[in-house]
Amino acid sequence: MARSNYVFTSESVSEGHPDKVADRISDTVVDAFIEADPEARVACETMVTTNRIILAGEVRAGRPGKSKAENKAFTKEIIAGLQPKVRAAVKDIGYAQKGFHWEKAKYACYLHGQSAHIAQGVDSSAKKDEGAGDQGIMFGYACKETPELMPATLQYSHNILKRLAEVRHSGERAELEPDAKSQVTLRYENGKPVEVVAIVVSHQHTKKLGAATYSQKRFADLVRPYAESVFPTGLITKKTKWHINPTGKFEIGGPDGDSGLTGRKIIVDTYGGAAPHGGGAFSGKDPTKVDRSAAYMCRYLAKNVVAAGLAERCTIQISYAIGVATPTSFYVDLHGADTIDPAKLEKALPEMVGGATPRAIRTHLKLNRPIYARTAAYGHFGRQFDNEGGFTWERDDLVAELKRLA
Q: What is the pLDDT of residues 244-302, one digit of tens each?
């Protein structure tokens, strides 16, 4: 039986964290390829370190009616045009430091063609639907802890860093540099968050805080009001423990302070440890990769179940075999809710989205668009879908249909 009284913690990292810089670059590559060819295949890994940006992975793009040689040249043309897009992404994050500069960092690209053996099992044909890009398990989750239907510990951790990023980008707090981490610990009673136990913020900064020299207290006084502003009234109490830059100065940060790699923040990207994770990263992968697209679909379905009032919490698991279109399993956990038989949802939910095949997922969520760079920081879930087609998996357009099932 699930506990109802407990203390739980989640963390987040900013867009300037080294691993998030790598994620942003990898998703910039995905967007560049999908913009050129909506059916492009991309598996891009990025490493960033002191004034170096390194790309590696497998890619493929083409145009209808063109020969293999012409499409190979087209792919090379896209690769050749990546460097200015990558540098623009780093500039947008805010890196113009001596140890990591958007314009001066050395750039190396080792992207190459996708394996023909993978392609033969994944691509669709007249006789078969598009198969999954790999085997694996994916999870989706939603809960009623926040308006976004996300775990509160993670949502507040994201919101702290988003607020600090806003005032950094606007120039209101020029003392702040891009690299940062946050962590929120909440106490739960009867499964509901009732008190903030602890808040941790570690944020890179300039050598001076305006005209004043750095001191830990002065920096804490600068950061704390922004962090406090993201919490509902009453959650922060006199007992709440604050740890702001607990080790002291944090001037050397970003890829100069620690190397970054694509896909190392998968718990930050999803549910902050409040739900299972299949293990696959999202960034750098085109939507034929079910690590990404099926995880988006599971979130979409779980969110609609909770939004429909069928459960306070919902966890969904789906699994695939490489090259096979139909899922090998589909599992729904309503965490004790008795409003509907989970087995009924296990049958109905895939049918609502075309059988949850890779092609059906991409079509239903409209994933063949350059919408991925915006997902690279502050979580892939709990976001507002936008006019350009981003975050379609956050819609709740299945609610009416689900209510009819109950």
A: 999 999 999 999 999 999 999 999 999 999 999 999 999 999 999 999 999 999 999 99
| Two structure tokens written together for 60 | 């493929």
pLDDT score recorded for residue 122: 62
Q: For 182-193, what is each residue's pLDDT tens digit?
A: 999 999 999 999
